[in-house]
Amino acid sequence: MRLQQFLARAGIASRRKAEALIRAGRVTINGEVAELGRVVQPGDVVRLDGERVNPPRKTVVIALNKPRGYTTTHEDPHAEKRVYSLVPAHPGLHAVGRLDKETEGLLLLTNDGQLTQLLTHPRNQVPKVYRAWCKNGRLSLEACRRLEQGVALEDGPAKALRAIPARGGARLVLTEGRKREVRRMLARVGYPVERLVRLAVGPIELGGLEPGQWRYLSPGEVRLLRQSAHTRPAAPDVESERERVPKRSGKGTDQPRTDRRAHPSAGAGDKTRL
User: Fold this and answer.
1) Could you tell me where in the chain the CATH 3.10.290.10 domains are found?
2) What pLDDT, in 10s, does the model give residues 131-175?
3) Other Cβ atoms closer than 10 A to 213
4) CATH superfamily of the 3-52 domain
5) Where are the alpha helices (DSSP H) in 79-127?
6) What are the backbone dihedrals phi and psi of residue 209, each rounded to the nearest 5 degrees, phi first?
7) Residue 223 pLDDT exceeds 70
8) Catalytic residue positions?
């Protein structure tokens, strides 16, 4: 496989960042500085900054119901609670995008940098479904129309693929993942967020996971995720008023990780009504 793909699947970095490492001359193959596009053959020794890079491992993808108050980071020394304390340790495990500290819901984690690149690159437009509760209650149809047409934010225009009024707020589908984007969009149309939960990423739904619980995705679900990055996005059906309101984060989310694995029934077969 190509060197940038090798690095991504080894969990070193996304493919884009791996390409930057190669261009910077930080990667060698069998002692020689490698060029972008070089193919890694069986038996080749790949090193990054002199440290050997182990061959790609079996892909692991974890679905976590991130509780409120947890930070999506490895590095922040000031973070009191980190999402990685809730899931099993795997070399190279990282989040597929981020949820801010106060946002709850579905967070995917993987050791496959190439998969992360596929799911997070703006070009692929993988849809994410959110449920928001707002200070000013249920969104008006006019506010939803403005969100679908696009609103101006300080870092450029942003719009929702779908925006539907719901009790106390709205349900939204976005294909981007900018910092605090949903919160900023809703504030822009006059509906500051009180609570925000992500319900789905592409074909993967939050399902029956309780706050702090996690589960491994099946190989079939991982294939569906990859396919979703190559398919023109269609807005999920978020019209129904019948919805399962996710539980609020509360006591119990600091239990040891061995106690937080979800029963298999919380998986793909347990579909959430959005």
Assistant:
1) 3-52
2) 999 999 999 999 999 999 999 999 999 999 999 999 999 999 999
3) 23
4) RNA-binding S4 domain (3.10.290.10)
5) 113-120
6) -65, 130
7) yes
8) 100
269-272 long-range contacts (CB < 8 A, ≥24 apart) are: 270/207, 270/208, 271/205, 271/207, 272/199, 272/200, 272/205, 272/206, 272/207, 272/208, 272/244
Domain(s) of CATH 3.30.2350.10: residues in the chain: 61-266
Q: What is the 3-state secondary structure (H, E, C) of 127-174?
A: CEEEEEEECCCCCCHHHHHHHHHCEEECCEEECCCEEEEECCEEEEEE
Top-confidence residue, 111 or 173: 173
pLDDT in tens, 56-95: 678 899 999 999 999 988 766 677 899 999 999 887 888 9
Place of tokens 């702090």: 212
pLDDT at 268: 46
* Burial class for 42, CB neighbours closer than 10 Å (0-12, 13-18, 19+): exposed
Contacts of residue 178, Cβ cutoff 8 Å, sequence gap at least 6: 153, 155, 158
Both structure tokens of 64: 């976590």
CA neighbor of 272 nearest in space, from 248, 237, 229: 237
Q: Are 86 and 64 in contact (CB under 8 A)?
A: yes
pTM across the whole model: 0.76
CATH architecture of 61-266: 2-Layer Sandwich (3.30)
Phi, psi dihedrals of residue 220, rounded to the nearest 5°? -65, -40
